[in-house]
Amino acid sequence: MTSACASVLSPDLPVEARARDCEVLVAGGGPVGAVALAALREAGVDALVVEAAPQLPEDLRASTFHPPTLEMLDRLGLLAELLPQGLKAPVYQYRVRATGEVLAFDLSELADVTPFPFRLQCEQWKLTRLVRSRFPDRVVMNRRVVHFTQDREGVTVHLEGPTAIETVRTRFLVAADGANSLIRKWLDVHFDGFTYPEKFLTLSTPEPLEQHFEGLAYVNYVSDPRWWHVMLRVPELWRVLVVADEDMPDSELLADRTKERVFDRLIGKADVETRHRTIYRVHQRVATRFDHGRVLLAGDAAHLNNPLGGLGMNSGIHDAMNLAEKLVAILKEGADPEELLPRYGRQRRQVTQTFIQEQTRRNKAMIEAEEEARRPVFDEMARTLADPEKRRAYMLRQAMFASLEEAAAIV
Ligand SMILES: Cc1cc2nc3c(=O)[nH]c(=O)nc-3n(C[C@H](O)[C@H](O)[C@H](O)COP(=O)(O)OP(=O)(O)OC[C@H]3O[C@@H](n4cnc5c(N)ncnc54)[C@H](O)[C@@H]3O)c2cc1C
User: Fold this and answer.
1) How far is the CA of 103 from the centre of ligand 1 (A)?
2) Per the domain annotation, does 346 fall within a domain?
3) Is 27 touching ligand 1 by the criterion CB < 6 Å?
4) CATH number of the structural domain spanning residue 189
5) pLDDT digits over 256-307, tens only?
6) Which domain holds residue 49?
7) Measured in angstroms, how far is the CA atom of residue 304 from the centroid of ligand 1?
8) b/e string for 124-140 if b means 16 or more Cβ within 10 A?
9) What's residue 375's pLDDT?
């Protein structure tokens, strides 16, 4: 009687999910938690996401999906619905602001390696929203993990809800709770690395930037020692990421004055509409260990890097897929957790160190270098572009195929 009334009154509302005991509890409904859930459910694991926020955020964060990530989303049956919500970007460009030089890499050349030889330019919230719509009874909003204890059989997790603390029991806890991960803090894991002194300012605009630059791609990295920037296209908007003065207060960075200065410098036009203005600090950090018994760190909870190259969210999704595969083997095939979970930690931590951290540091060093330092790097990249073999190897690396191969080889 009650449920019939409820469905008549609110036929379109998603099922209100409840926190409860389960095989795998995933803390955090960002892209990493969402993909972990989809991969575990695909294999029939009783998994649940608990998300601290009352609504999934729709802010402007990562917006590039690399080809291997698209393959993963395809295997999970998510890509068909995500693809039309983004833009296919086969070409990415490195530009030099002072000289106007352009180096364009075309992923179409990898069509023999992947069915998706392009980046998909698509906001990350479209993925999290899609996963929630697929599994409405498996994403519990408004539940923050506040504490947990683990023993030989499982993990007891305490969740803060709107009116009470709830306690649930799970066999494994996946910490996909983002950069400020409370779970990582409780584990007392070192999060070694550094924070860049400067701030990053992201502005989004419906202004057609492609009309101001000849041959602009959907993904463009523009070098300049004082004013490097990135221009990325998503379906309805351009996103402009610029480096900002660390000493300038946030209120000043978000003011119209700053926006006008940025666009005046970029396209000689200050009166430009913006839809989002975001400031954020960028870190290069990696947790000293990803696996902690039955508690596993993934995504931003485990590692952070600068956004140059679009590797942060993608590498987090690769963590989620790697970990889900091992949890499925443990829960469904009786594999040994003491063997597989440390392997997850070794595989993903090592590629984070050797590839993601290294590559993003190098990308930033190049884009911001002074002319004398940038010239040899840029010339080397031009030689790479001109040589079919080197160009292919470079694109396979940037597109993250190489890091997945490297991880798979680690035992
Ligand atoms: C402002 C900003 C701009 C960015 N721009 C870019 C970009 O341009 N390119 C790029 O590659 N990357 C970018 N990033 C990084 C990218 O967004 C992240 O790498 C990606 O979101 C990582 O996904 P995640 O699921 O690990 O963490 P998140 O997306 O942070 O998700 C974590 C989720 O966990 C929830 N949560 C937190 N604590 C708890 C708890 N205790 N219990 C339950 N739930 C909890 C949070 O509410 C959140 O929904 C940006 C990040 C920020 C902050």
Assistant:
1) 31
2) yes
3) yes
4) 3.50.50.60
5) 999 999 999 999 999 999 999 999 899 999 999 999 999 999 999 999 999 8
6) 14-87+121-193+284-362
7) 10
8) bbbbbbbbbebbeebbb
9) 85
CA-based radius of gyration for the chain? 22
Quick check: CB of 182 below 6 Å from ligand 1? Answer: yes
Q: Which residue's C-alpha comes closest to atom 27 of ligand 1?
A: 178
Tens of pLDDT, residue by residue over 29-65, are 999 999 999 999 999 999 999 999 999 988 889 999 9
* 117 within 8 A of 108, measured Cβ to Cβ: yes
Q: Which residue in the block uniquely carries the two structure tokens 């601290």?
A: 52
Sign of CA dihedral 183, 137, 24, 151: positive
Does residue 1 surpass a pLDDT of 80? no
**Global pTM value:** 0.94
Amino acid of residue 97? R
The protein residue whose alpha carbon is closest to atom 20 in ligand 1 is 313
Query: Domain count of the chain?
Result: 1
Q: Report the nearest-CA residue for atom 35 of ligand 1.
A: 28
Question: Do residues 319 and 325 make contact, with C-beta atoms less than 8 angstroms apart?
Answer: no
- In the reported structure, the alpha carbon of residue 300 is separated from the centroid of ligand 1 by a whole-number distance in angstroms of 6
Q: Cα torsion at 300, 302, 304, 310 (round to 10°)?
A: -60
